[in-house]
Task: structure prediction
Amino acid sequence: MKALGILAGPRKGYTNDKLLDAALEGLKARSAEVEKLSLYGLDIKHCTGCNMCEKTRKCVIDDDHQMVLDKMAASDAIVFASPTYWSNVTGMAKAFFDRSPRFFDITKLGPKRLAEKPSKIILITSCGMPYPLSHLFGMATGCMRAMKVFFGYMAKAKKKCLIASGMVDYQKSEPSKRLLKKAYNLGKNI
Ligand SMILES: Cc1cc2nc3c(=O)[nH]c(=O)nc-3n(C[C@H](O)[C@H](O)[C@H](O)COP(=O)(O)O)c2cc1C
Result:
C-alpha cells in the first residue's frame, strides 16, 4: 500500500505536523510505503478562474501543483493535515483545492467520481478554541468540512477524521499523548 502525507500548515514540528507523522507511523506499522509533502515548501499559485480545466482536466499553470495531484492519484491512502485558520483550511490548502480540476463527471444521476484511488483518507486539523466551543462556533468543524468536501468529490474512500481542539499555546502547540496515539491508531487501523 502506498500512503501520502500532506502537511497544509506552515509550521513544521508543531501540532498538525506531529499528528500527521503519528498517522504515517501507524500506516508504516502496517507496511505502507510512506511519503510526506509539505504544501508550504512548494510552488502552488492561485487559481485564475480560467476554467480551462473543465475541458482538459489539467490546470494550465505550470508549477508544483500537478506533481502533488499525480502523487495523490497514485496513493492508496492519503493523510491530509491543515490547521484551522478562520474556521477553514489554510490559505495554501485552499489554493491547492481551487487549482484541482474536477474529479467527477456530471451525469443524469449526479456527480460520478473518476478516480479509483485513494481508498483511505485521514483528515486532521487542530484549532486554538477549546472543545466544545471549537465545534459549536464551527471552527475546527468548518476546516474539517472544507477538507471533507474536497476529498469527498475526489474519491469514494473510507474517511477518518481527527480534531485537536484547544491548542492555544502557539509556541508549544504540542498534541497530547492521547491524541498522538489516536492519530497513530487511525493510520494503523484505517
Ligand atoms: C491565521 C490564523 C487563523 C486562526 N484561526 C483560528 C480559528 O478560526 N479558530 C481557532 O480556534 N483557532 C484558530 N487559529 C489557531 C490555530 O488553529 C491553532 O493554533 C493550531 O493548532 C495551529 O496549528 P499548528 O501548531 O500545526 O500550526 C488560527 C491561527 C492562525 C495563525
Summary: The chain has one domain: 2-189. The domain at 2-189 is CATH 3.40.50.360 (Rossmann fold). The chain has a mean pLDDT of 93.
